[in-house]
Amino acid sequence: MPEHAYLAAVRESYDTVAADYAAKVSRPDGLDPLSRAMLAAFAETVRTADRGPLADLGCGPGYVTAHLAALGVPAYGVDLSPRMVELAREAHPHLRFTVGSMTALDIGDGELGGALAYYSTHHTPPELLPVVFAEVHRVLAPGGHLMLAGWAGDDEHVHPEHAYGGHPVSYGLHLLPAPRIAALIEEAGLTVTARLVQEPAAGAKRPVATLLARKPERP
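and the corresponding structure tokens:
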């Protein structure tokens, strides 16, 4: 299957910024209370359902993957950027990290009890989000769970030139309203079970949307 064109820009950009990203991005224990609570609730949900491991899709340097593992979830990470995966393996040698794309996951059908997309879908053009959510549906076991969190917006398309220490980047950001993201998740065959929209914190520009969803037990 040919690779979608935008992925090359995302991969190259995150390979470039990887070290500064790892140094600057917030660790889970530095997140706001609501964000930490949503991660904890998701971890408990996946652990209790016991349908399989959890894949952190777009794991970056692995901080959230390690946080979920510490909460008792059998978690591993997947990221498009080989350099990010190298950093994750160095920081968390006891966990598994692999290079891969959310548009074509190297994961078997129904293999996962949980899938996390934590600030990792906003580089995907809206017309390709159905591909991502179809892959999530495919790899989740019946009764498996998805958590998606990230910036929301009013159909904004942003093209930053520099990021994370001033490095040049070529990716785009596609910021959608939370109801539209929820609708796309539902169209992929998942049932949205919870939605949280946090208004921009002090110094932040955009709201954050967190959605929880579940794959039905039967089609």
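(Above: one complete record from the training split.) Helices lie at 6-24, 33-49, 63-70, 82-91, 129-139, 178-187.
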